[in-house]
Amino acid sequence: MGLTASLAAVSLGEGSTPLVAAGRLSAATGFDLHLKCDGVNPTGSFKDRGMVVAVGRAAESGARAVVCASTGNTAASAAAYAARAGLPAIVLTPAGAIATAKRAQALAAGAQLLEVRGTFDDALRLCRELGARPGYVLVNSINPDRIEGQKSVVFEILEQLGTVPEIIALPFGGGGNVTAVAAGLHEAGVSCRIVVGEAAERATTWASAIRIAEPAHAAHVAELVASGRVEVVTLSEDEIRAAWRRLAMEEGVFCEPASAAGFAALLRSGAGSGSKQPIVCILTGHGLKDPGALEAADEGTVVEATLDAVLEAVG
């Protein structure tokens, strides 16, 4: 998707993220697996693809400020692009529920961060109300400009692969990215299955980026499921953790926990196993976005500063 001159002025160089062939995981799973590493976008998540459009158009319209509800990644992205556009950003998050790194990103970029004593859904309700007032533009994914920008991931995948994948797998939190991928495939005139992973424990999941009890795009995702275009796989916390570990340990790709939900969904459903067609997992955020997840990783080993101690430790 090309940007107009005014939107290009807001751009931070989002998009054009790597598509990595996952050889070891392909051999182990029977998939011809490729990883779309959207965690290398400027603020560390896929949100930047749509945010540049939403904030840029808000600036074009003479907005007073942009506003969003967030579990973290939207906050970081909205704050960065608002700063780029010279607009205030007002961010509402559930109290105590935002990962430290994402909170730091939003605050560093100058956002006014308000912690709501309630859920993400409470925060989004308040943002809808504020966004209905003159001068305030809501930049959550219910803003169609966000979906317009996020569709770009599909065109990149098609160009990088040189063919149409059998399946695109990704996480399912609020449903905005699922909606965008489906829209991108439709616009490109190609058919591809979409497999999405959601947490069984939506309201409390360890995968904080998809900790959304009531997805804003639930109705549209249900329509996509009914049409046979999307398969939703509900995952346990253990399945998400295991997939997250495998991506890092077997392919060296460190993503945030929520990003692993698409891969976990593939493993659970068995969709595409043994197929000769490529399968793409969109990894939506970088692992450093959620340092709290490191609590699930093994501790390092402390040794004395001698070669003997090192040799003993490595066995």
Task: Chart the SSEs and their pairings.
Layout: H1 5-8, E1 19-21, H2 23-29, E2 32-37, H3 47-60, E3 65-69, H4 73-85, E4 89-94, H5 100-108, E5 112-116, H6 120-131, E6 136-138, H7 144-150, H8 152-161, E7 167-171, H9 176-188, E8 193-199, H10 218-226, E9 230-235, H11 237-251, H12 261-269, E10 278-283, H13 307-314
Parallel strand pairs: 2-10, 3-4, 3-6, 4-5, 7-8, 7-10, 8-9
Antiparallel strand pairs: 1-2
Helix pairs in contact: 3-4, 3-7, 4-5, 7-9, 8-9, 11-12
Characterize this entry briefly:
The protein is of the alpha/beta class and 315 residues long. The protein has helices spanning 5-8, 23-29, 47-60, 73-85, 100-108, 120-131, 144-150, 152-161, 176-188, 218-226, 237-251, 261-269, 307-314, and strands spanning 19-21, 32-37, 65-69, 89-94, 112-116, 136-138, 167-171, 193-199, 230-235, 278-283.
Structure description:
β4, α5 and β5 form a beta-alpha-beta unit. 51% of the residues are buried. The chain folds into two domains: 193 residues, Rossmann fold (3-Layer(aba) Sandwich), CATH 3.40.50.1100; 97 residues, Rossmann fold, CATH 3.40.50. α3 runs parallel beside α4, α7 packs across α9 and α11 crosses α12. By secondary structure, the protein is α/β, with parallel strands linked by helices. The chain contains 13 helices and ten strands. Helix content is 41%, strand content 17%. It has a six-stranded mixed beta sheet, with helices on both faces. The protein has a four-stranded parallel beta sheet with strand order 5-4-3-6, with helices on both faces.
